[in-house]
């Protein structure tokens, strides 16, 4: 009840304050503030979702990510800038610090303007690699827009980004109309490292490749290929351990008004179709700015699943080995403007670990409809504690691409059997002879006491000998 | 005194038994042992063993007071009960082990206590315990036995 | 779609020399050769855009495969911007592009040695699918077609290449604790037999005593001389054992201890008297 109350209060507070689950102060860094007209629809969408956007140029002296050690902004969006560096207020160090303080960054690249060195260093820090000359152009001679890039082939038409793995949450493609491509005009691509924090959102088609239009316009030397095919990420996401997010969009142009409204035609087709850019831009920005895929734990409860005096105690500090226990956890997901119950993606599994150093149990948590509501879904698992005493953790460690990390740990001690909790010896048939042994010994001893005290000497011969 | 005389007679066969074991451990040939100690040759045969045991037995029957025999019967009973419990443990496994320990140690402990009672009350040992009267020994015996029973009942769960 | 179309148009071009509105890329004089350091030139096969080689090409541990072809746009040799040989693991979908070195005439050469192939592909269970991608700017259609299959023969003497399994956030296999097996009781019949055998020794003891002439004849004398102390002494010993029995069956230690103290006091007090009487009998030679 109490948890529910605080939960609804929290819900109310979030509704009032911002549309993102973490804050609404957004900084947009552009070369020239007038450039924002190019992206008016994209930025307008953000504003209509509740973000308060501050526009700054890297040269601006008032530009600062922090004030008195606290973040001044909750999110930053970088549009391509011509200057080589971004000045003293946006050094890679400060940007990393911004991420460490749970700030989110949306970073856009362009094939026409090399990325600022500060951003390149930041990306290198995160194991995201740009071409050595800080930019490149992704072309595809098989999947380009015939209308706008019949010769240059540099406006790629990409399918809506389905999850790469079947068990990953589908945040970007769900509900998308079939056959509406994403236009990816004049963009660069990045290579992602092998770490689990990096996830490609849009990969390049198998036949696409990246080249440098200045130096490799005529000949692409065999040993100078930066990347091709699915290894090139055109839109990528990085979620840090503290759930701060960074998204890289290879083509800033794809967020522009022009491509939101453009009609495109695929190679070999005549039909002109609208692009999916507006929706995908909303979803990528929404993901980066913690509007989707944000999870939270409402409450955790574990209790004894046995009849007896401890059955009604919630979250006891101690259990006994081999106790039957039930664990419940309630999860919510922030969905643009409200908390909804979190449903685990198909093929994925929410798992509970019962661990001391290493897990003794790792179990599936099933939906508990009785304790769920539209705002929160409860998951439950019941199991028998291991026959090992010690300090254990109920641990839900749910880390998945695109979803904020959940690491919920509840420590309990598990004691061994008390001396009066063992089965009694008469219950154990194997103990009968030994019980009989004690019984016989005591009975015989009582008789012996009586005999010793009251036996009259009967053997005359012995008496005779004694008196001799 | 009569018991002392009996004791002197008692020594002969038991000494024969120990010296009989002596030559073999010394590694000497039994024949030479027979030569050096001719009067003990008869002891080495099987028949004479039965004879020795028979001697001891009849001597026991003759000289032991009836009251001591009653104690001995009780001790024999405890040996049988203990042996049965131990045999069961060997045959059927020691689960539950605490039950085995308490059952078996009740019997063994009772045996030990009874043996001390026998030592302290036998007429022959009177000189060894000048200050302990048989009744005093018995009182100790009762108290110790009760404590033993309590521990065993407690431990068997 | 576009792939079959380009094939079709290529076929048309070859057959009739009729130019379509949109030209397309093709290739000619394509060969694949396995160059072995030890044995010199091995297998050499001609490649065809319409049909992949029927037999897979095998690459040994120190071998290199060499692919040569002449790229053609609309039938005449021309340098394409993109001329990749792509190796693909059919199962995992992983691809590795190998760009060819192209010349103005459209002649393209590429060499792939085994150690250049990524480890994940080396470990593929099925033959790798090698295809060619030729494309360039302009209106000409690109060509993307399956050329041949490639079997990788690993060096049996060298340790097999291994990939460190990259950490991916995903569900993990379930773990269920394996409990120690409950201790097993021996067959009840054996326990019963032994319990009965133990119990049976008690009457046997009584029989033994009886045969030796044990009796309780002095009980009456004793009760006559010190009735209270003897009853109290014997009674308290029996009561003590009964308390032990209650402790075993129902009582807890804190119920037991005061009663034990009480009964014990009775035993001690009555015991001195009772044993004094026994001593009197002994001194009288009645024991």
TrEMBL record, chain A:
Membrane topology: Single-pass type I membrane protein
TM stretches of this protein: 431-455
PANTHER family: DOLICHYL-DIPHOSPHOOLIGOSACCHARIDE--PROTEIN GLYCOSYLTRANSFERASE 48 KDA SUBUNIT (PTHR10830)
Entry annotated with the keyword Signal: yes
GO molecular function: transferase activity
Domain OST48 N-terminal: 25-288
Sequence similarity: Belongs to the DDOST 48 kDa subunit family.
InterPro entries xrefs: DDOST_48_kDa_subunit, OST48_MD, OST48_N
A GO CC term attached to the entry: oligosaccharyltransferase complex
Cell compartments where the protein resides: Endoplasmic reticulum membrane; Membrane
Pathway assigned in UniProt: Protein modification; protein glycosylation
Pfam families tied to this protein: OST48_MD, OST48_N
Protein name per Swiss-Prot or TrEMBL: Dolichyl-diphosphooligosaccharide--protein glycosyltransferase subunit WBP1
Subunit structure: Component of the oligosaccharyltransferase (OST) complex.
Keywords for the protein's UniProt record, in alphabetical order: Endoplasmic reticulum, Membrane, Signal, Transferase, Transmembrane, Transmembrane helix
GO biological process: protein N-linked glycosylation via asparagine
Record function comment: Subunit of the oligosaccharyl transferase (OST) complex that catalyzes the initial transfer of a defined glycan (Glc(3)Man(9)GlcNAc(2) in eukaryotes) from the lipid carrier dolichol-pyrophosphate to an asparagine residue within an Asn-X-Ser/Thr consensus motif in nascent polypeptide chains, the first step in protein N-glycosylation. N-glycosylation occurs cotranslationally and the complex associates with the Sec61 complex at the channel-forming translocon complex that mediates protein translocation across the endoplasmic reticulum (ER).
Signal peptide segment: 1-18
Domain OST48 middle: 313-456
Gene source species: Coniochaeta ligniaria NRRL 30616
Superkingdom assignment: Eukaryota
Keyword Lipid metabolism appears in the UniProt entry: no
Automatic annotation (TrEMBL), chain B:
Mode of membrane association: Multi-pass membrane protein
Gene Ontology terms: cellular component: oligosaccharyltransferase complex
GO biological process, one term: protein N-linked glycosylation
Keywords assigned: Endoplasmic reticulum, Membrane, Transmembrane, Transmembrane helix
Stretches for region Disordered: 1-28
Biased composition (Low complexity): 12-28
Pathway linked to the protein: Protein modification; protein glycosylation
Function: Subunit of the oligosaccharyl transferase (OST) complex that catalyzes the initial transfer of a defined glycan (Glc(3)Man(9)GlcNAc(2) in eukaryotes) from the lipid carrier dolichol-pyrophosphate to an asparagine residue within an Asn-X-Ser/Thr consensus motif in nascent polypeptide chains, the first step in protein N-glycosylation. N-glycosylation occurs cotranslationally and the complex associates with the Sec61 complex at the channel-forming translocon complex that mediates protein translocation across the endoplasmic reticulum (ER). All subunits are required for a maximal enzyme activity.
Subunit: Component of the oligosaccharyltransferase (OST) complex.
Protein name: Dolichyl-diphosphooligosaccharide--protein glycosyltransferase subunit OST2
Naturally occurring in which organism (per UniProt): Coniochaeta ligniaria NRRL 30616
Automatic annotation (TrEMBL), chain C:
Organism: Coniochaeta ligniaria NRRL 30616
Alphabetized UniProt keyword annotations: Endoplasmic reticulum, Membrane, Signal, Transmembrane, Transmembrane helix
Gene Ontology CC entries for this record: oligosaccharyltransferase complex
Localization: Endoplasmic reticulum membrane
Primary localisation category: endoplasmic reticulum
The organism's taxonomic lineage, starting at the top: Eukaryota, Fungi, Dikarya, Ascomycota, Pezizomycotina
GO biological process, one term: protein N-linked glycosylation
Signal peptide, first to last residue: 1-21
Bilayer disposition of the protein: Multi-pass membrane protein
Protein's name according to its UniProt entry: Ribophorin II C-terminal domain-containing protein
Record domain Ribophorin II C-terminal: where: 179-282
Pfam families with a match to the protein in the record: Ribophorin_II_C
Transmembrane stretches, start-end: 189-210, 231-248, 254-272
Keyword Lipid biosynthesis attached: no
rRNA-binding found in the keyword field: no
């Amino acid at each position: 009840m109490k948890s529910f109350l605080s939960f609804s209060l929290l819900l109310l507070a979030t509704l009032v304050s911002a549309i993102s689950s973490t804050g609404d102060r957004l900084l947009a860094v552009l070369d020239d503030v007038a450039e924002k007209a190019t992206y008016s629809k994209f930025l307008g969408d953000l504003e209509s979702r509740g973000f308060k956007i501050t526009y700054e140029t890297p040269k601006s002296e008032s530009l600062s990510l922090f004030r008195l050690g606290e973040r001044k902004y909750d999110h930053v969006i970088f549009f391509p800038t011509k200057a080589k560096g971004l000045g003293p207020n946006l050094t890679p160090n400060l940007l990393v610090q911004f991420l460490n303080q749970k700030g989110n960054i949306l970073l856009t690249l362009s094939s026409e303007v090399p990325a600022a060195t500060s951003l390149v260093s930041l990306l290198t820090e995160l194991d995201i690699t740009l071409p050595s000359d800080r930019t490149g152009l992704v072309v595809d001679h098989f999947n380009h827009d015939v209308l706008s890039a019949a010769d240059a082939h540099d406006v790629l038409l990409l399918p809506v980004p389905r999850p790469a793995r079947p068990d990953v949450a589908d945040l970007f493609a769900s509900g998308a109309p079939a056959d509406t491509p994403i236009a990816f005009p004049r963009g660069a691509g990045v290579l992602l490292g092998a770490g689990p924090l990096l996830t490609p959102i849009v990969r390049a088609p198998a036949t696409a490749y990246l080249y440098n239009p200045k130096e490799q316009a005529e000949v692409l030397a065999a040993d100078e290929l930066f990347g091709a095919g699915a290894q090139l990420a055109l839109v990528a996401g990085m979620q840090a351990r503290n759930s701060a997010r960074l998204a890289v969009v290879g083509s800033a142009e794809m967020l522009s008004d022009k491509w939101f409204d453009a009609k495109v035609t695929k190679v070999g087709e005549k039909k002109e179709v609208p692009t999916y850019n507006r929706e995908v831009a909303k979803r990528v920005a929404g993901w980066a700015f913690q509007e989707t895929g944000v999870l939270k734990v409402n409450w955790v409860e574990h209790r004894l699943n046995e009849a007896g005096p401890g059955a009604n105690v919630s979250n006891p500090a101690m259990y006994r080995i081999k106790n039957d226990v039930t664990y419940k956890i309630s999860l919510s997901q922030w969905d643009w403007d409200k908390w909804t119950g979190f449903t685990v993606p198909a093929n994925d599994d929410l798992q509970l670990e019962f661990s001391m150093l290493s897990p003794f149990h790792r179990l599936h948590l099933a939906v508990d409809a009785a304790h769920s509501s539209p705002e929160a879904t409860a998951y439950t698992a019941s199991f028998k504690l291991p026959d090992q005493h010690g300090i254990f953790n109920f641990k839900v460690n749910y880390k998945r691409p695109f979803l904020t990390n959940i690491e919920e740990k509840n420590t309990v001690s598990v004691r061994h059997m008390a001396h009066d909790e063992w089965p009694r010896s008469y219950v154990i048939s194997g103990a009968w002879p030994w019980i009989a042994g004690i019984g016989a010994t005591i009975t015989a001893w009582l008789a012996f006491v009586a005999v010793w005290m009251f036996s009259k000497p009967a053997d005359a011969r012995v008496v005779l000998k004694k008196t001799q | 005194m009569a018991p002392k005389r009996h004791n002197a007679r008692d020594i002969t066969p038991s000494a024969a038994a120990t010296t009989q074991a002596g030559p073999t451990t010394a590694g000497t040939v039994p024949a030479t042992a027979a030569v050096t100690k001719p009067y003990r040759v008869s002891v080495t045969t099987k028949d004479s063993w039965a004879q020795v045991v028979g001697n001891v037995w009849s001597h026991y029957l003759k000289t032991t007071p009836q009251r001591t025999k009653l104690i001995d019967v009780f001790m024999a009973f405890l040996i049988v009960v203990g042996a049965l419990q131990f045999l069961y443990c060997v045959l059927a496994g020691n689960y539950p082990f605490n039950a085995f320990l308490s059952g078996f140690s009740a019997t063994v402990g009772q045996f030990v206590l009874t043996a001390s009672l026998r030592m302290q009350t036998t007429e022959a040992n009177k000189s060894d315990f000048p200050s302990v009267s048989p009744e005093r020994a018995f009182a100790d015996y009762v108290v110790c036995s009760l404590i033993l029973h309590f521990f065993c009942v407690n431990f068997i769960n | 779609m576009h792939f079959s179309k380009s094939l079709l148009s290529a076929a048309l071009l070859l057959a009739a020399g009729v130019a379509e509105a949109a030209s397309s890329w093709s290739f000619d004089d394509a060969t694949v050769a396995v160059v072995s350091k030890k044995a010199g030139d091995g297998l050499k096969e001609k490649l065809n855009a319409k049909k992949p080689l029927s037999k897979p090409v095998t690459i040994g541990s120190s071998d290199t495969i060499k692919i040569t072809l002449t790229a053609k746009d609309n039938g005449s040799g021309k340098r394409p911007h993109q001329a990749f040989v792509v190796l693909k693991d059919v199962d995992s979908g992983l691809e590795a592009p190998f760009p060819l070195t192209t010349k103005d005439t459209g002649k393209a050469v590429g060499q792939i040695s085994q150690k250049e192939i990524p480890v994940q592909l080396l470990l593929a269970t099925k033959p790798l699918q090698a295809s060619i991608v030729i494309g360039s700017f302009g209106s000409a259609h690109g060509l993307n077609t399956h050329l041949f299959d490639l079997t990788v023969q690993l060096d049996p003497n060298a340790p097999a290449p291994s990939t460190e399994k990259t950490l991916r956030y995903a569900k993990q296999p379930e773990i269920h604790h394996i409990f120690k097996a409950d201790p097993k009781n021996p067959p009840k019949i054996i326990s019963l037999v032994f319990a009965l055998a133990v119990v049976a020794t008690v009457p046997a003891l009584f029989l033994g005593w009886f045969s030796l002439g044990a009796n309780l004849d002095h009980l009456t004398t004793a009760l006559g001389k010190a009735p209270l102390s003897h009853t109290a002494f014997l009674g308290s010993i029996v009561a003590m054992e009964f308390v032990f029995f209650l402790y075993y069956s129902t009582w807890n230690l804190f119920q037991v201890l005061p009663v034990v103290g009480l009964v014990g006091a009775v035993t001690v007090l009555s015991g001195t008297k009772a044993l004094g009487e026994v001593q009197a009998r002994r001194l009288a030679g009645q024991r």
